[in-house]
# Entry
Amino acid sequence: MKKIVLAMAVASVTAVSAFAAFADETNPAIVHRQGLYKTMAGHMTAMKSILFLGFEAPADLSFHAQGILDAFGHMGNSYPPGSDKGETKAKPEIWTQPEKVKQRAMDGVAAAKSLVAATAGTDKGATIAAFKSMGEKCKACHDDFRKE
# Structure
């Protein structure tokens, strides 16, 4: 009986996930950038579990830091004309303040590089400081360009 209930639960979650993937946004630029941002957020969440919640996987910190940096490298032209049409959390200012957007992106990349460097060492305090800095850079961009 337990196996049947478990199989039904797994099937339900799979069906809901598949439906959500097809029912969500169809603007490819929005889908792409949201996927990259979710990837970065996932890496930050995993790092939080290691740095602050006691998950025993310190060797994974460098993987997650590199993943964040790699995601920045794939952002490309994530805000092309027309990518404001659809389900987006981007504020209109993201299309009218390109220099500020560029600066926020460069700040994020610099913080990601510092995070990668910190995770290459053994100083947990340095890694925590770099992690917090990365979070501050993300928040600064969100404050300026992301709707609540």
Summary: Residues 49 and 55 are 5 Å apart (CA to CA). Residues 5-20 have pLDDT under 50 and may be disordered.
